[in-house]
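forwarding from the other thread:

> can someone predict this with zinc ion?

sure thing
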Amino acid sequence: MASTAGPIALACAMARDEETKRLRALEDQVSFLTQQLEALAREVEGRREEGDGSMRTQLRCPACRCRKILHAKQILDRTDSGEKRQLSVTSEGFWSPKSRGTFECHICTACGLVEWHVTDPSEIKIDDDKFEIHEVDDRGPGPYR
Ligand SMILES: [Zn+2]
């Protein structure tokens, strides 16, 4: 018995050592991943607090992080007769059409990324076949809807 208990005890001790090493390695990995996850959670929370992330509100380029943003308040277009007018989504009127939904843009001065916006979307009348509204209700199925 004693001759077989020695090697078995030794094998068990070695197995315990290996298991202990493996558990420590796993604990280290869990600790590392926990730190990474906490850093990501802080980054996500920071980005949430930044708002919508647009150049218009943040004055920061999302591509290169540059803080020098050019705001083009009007984008010029030409009518069929060659007159200058603001580029817009649509116009109203036939003889002297008025621009509706004029564009503006924010341009990163470092990388040239352009972000377009309609200055006042409420100007656009959605009463014909040119437009469709796509809306998602993401409030979820809560009890207070
Ligand atoms: Zn940029």
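The helical segments are 2-50, 55-58. thats all i got for now
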